[in-house]
Amino acid sequence: MSEGSSPAPELVSVGSKPFEAFGALGDLELEFEKAEVEVLKYQIKTTTPLYERRNPLTSQIPGFWPTVLEATPDFDQHVTPKDVPAFATITSVNIIRPNPEEPRDFIIEIGFDKEKNQWFEDEVLRKQFWWRNVEGVWSGLVSEPVEVRWKSNKDLSDGETRRVYEEWKAKKDEKEGKGKGKGKGKGKATATNKGKGKETKSEEKKKLSLEERLKGGQPSFFTWFAWVGKGTEYGVDGKLEDEEEDEDEDEDEEGHDLFNHGDDLASTIADDIYPNAIKYFLETVTDDGAMDSDMSVSDLDSEEGDEEDGEEDEEDSEDDGIGSSRAKRPDATVESEDDDEDEGNKRRKRVKK
Fold first, then answer.
1. Model confidence over 10-48: pLDDT tens digits?
2. How far apart are CA 15 and CA 255, in angstroms?
3. Quick one: fold of 23-194+215-275?
4. Which residue ranges have biased composition labelled Acidic residues (predicted)?
5. DSSP 8-state assignment for residue 244
6. What is the DSSP letter of 108?
7. Which of 120, 181, 105, 199 lies closest to 154, judged by CA?
8. Contacts 24+ apart (CB under 8 A), 51-56
9. Residue ranges per domain, the chain?
């Protein structure tokens, strides 16, 4: 070690106390989580009546929600150019918290203008999310595919939302059938052996279809309604069924979601866009007003600059004898009748005038 250098840190042996501290910190984190949930319950209880009063007011303002969504940071990355006309018809966004005991469960409702909506049979699209916690393994939001009823030749997802919903529904019906006395083990064996090759081909086709679509650009925003995440095996009540035997299936199917990070987008809508809608709208309106004002001043400055430049150009033209501006400008008329007056006197007289 060279002179003046810092001594090497002394190695500290880890005894029982640090491990006890780590354990206590883990327990404390659980307490923090419980406290945050209680705060959220209180917040929902106090703000829900306010949102119920706000919702009809925002729906009366033309373009309110399209403006809010456009103003939300990074939200535009989820919207493709072909989605834009449909987004322009959004008239309402609503968040419902249906479970008082678990405030992290919520429903997102997006409503569309009845007359201008050319894409959906339903005026409102609803997607529900449940908060699930597998202790020590994973916690987060899960969902189920939504049956989006597209109008004829107006499917922005190119048939993907329907495909995902129908496959999920068939699997769900099969599970419910097993629960009605068919014999759980026997039913599973039959389902697995019946068409293993077909399922493999189907999975390969599904994966290939996703890869081909992504090569052509990002999927439509509305494929988000087919997002399930780790919730493929969750029933209508949001409870995980056959957790042990379906664990591998969950891992396999999780990678086939049409919409990446659908839980993050759901949280953004519920926890950011919805509560801060007025702020985003007013910021956009204010920014546009400031922009128009700046443009007006800039235009005036530009016009004045153009006039000054024009006068300078005309004077230069007179000096160089180019163009006919001298005949058009009264202030450029030469009063001297002396044909022998030199050019310097002429310039001085024009300057005086």
1. 544 545 667 677 777 877 888 888 899 999 999 999 999
2. 42
3. Arylsulfatase, C-terminal domain (3.30.1120)
4. 240-255, 300-321, 334-343
5. T
6. E
7. 120
8. 51/94, 51/95, 51/274, 54/278, 55/92, 55/94
9. 23-194+215-275
